[in-house]
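hey
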């Protein structure tokens, strides 16, 4: 129950928020846990010497059950692998973006990074929206240099959107 109830809670929260990705993630985790529990239970019982008594038919049913569990485990591995690969790629992109933005902000004291968001766009173009605090206007050359740095670091096209929040520093005696 400890492995099955939390994913069901996630599914319920995802349904309440009308967020399909949360619902599908919770369902994937629930299914994975259920299959793993069934397979682990069957293997444990077999290793401890518990087998169906009497009849070739019961043993055949046991083998079929274990084989079904193994096949289901292999089938569930495919979406899990796809989710894992996507998470690794997102993490890698985030690290690269962090590094490029850190280098950009350190090169100019008048610019501070506030936040950024990125999403894969159509035709493998990465949509990147960056919010900056800047004491001076962002020049076209700055934006082009930043876009080129992202394209070089990420190894693909980037659609860049810069949002500048003007900063004014006032000092009193």
């Amino acid at each position: 129950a400890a492995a099955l109830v939390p994913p069901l809670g996630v599914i319920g929260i995802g349904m309440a928020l009308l967020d399909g990705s949360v619902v599908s993630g919770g369902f994937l985790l629930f299914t994975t846990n259920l299959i793993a529990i069934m397979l682990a239970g069957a293997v444990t019982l077999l290793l401890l010497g518990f087998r169906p008594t009497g009849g070739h038919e019961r043993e055949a049913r046991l083998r079929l059950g274990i084989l079904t569990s193994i096949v289901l485990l292999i089938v569930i591995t495919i979406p899990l692998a796809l989710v894992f690969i996507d998470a690794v790629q997102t993490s890698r992109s985030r690290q690269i973006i962090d590094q490029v933005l850190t280098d950009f902000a350190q090169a100019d004291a008048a610019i501070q990074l506030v936040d950024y968001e990125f999403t894969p766009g159509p035709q493998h173009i990465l949509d990147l929206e960056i919010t900056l605090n800047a004491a001076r206007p962002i020049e076209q050359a700055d934006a082009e240099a930043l876009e080129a740095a992202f394209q070089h670091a990420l190894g693909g096209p980037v659609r860049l959107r810069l949002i500048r929040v003007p900063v004014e520093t006032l000092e009193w005696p």
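Helices lie at 5-17, 20-47, 56-107, 140-154. Residues 91-166 form a domain with the GMP Synthetase; Chain A, domain 3 fold (CATH 3.30.300.10).
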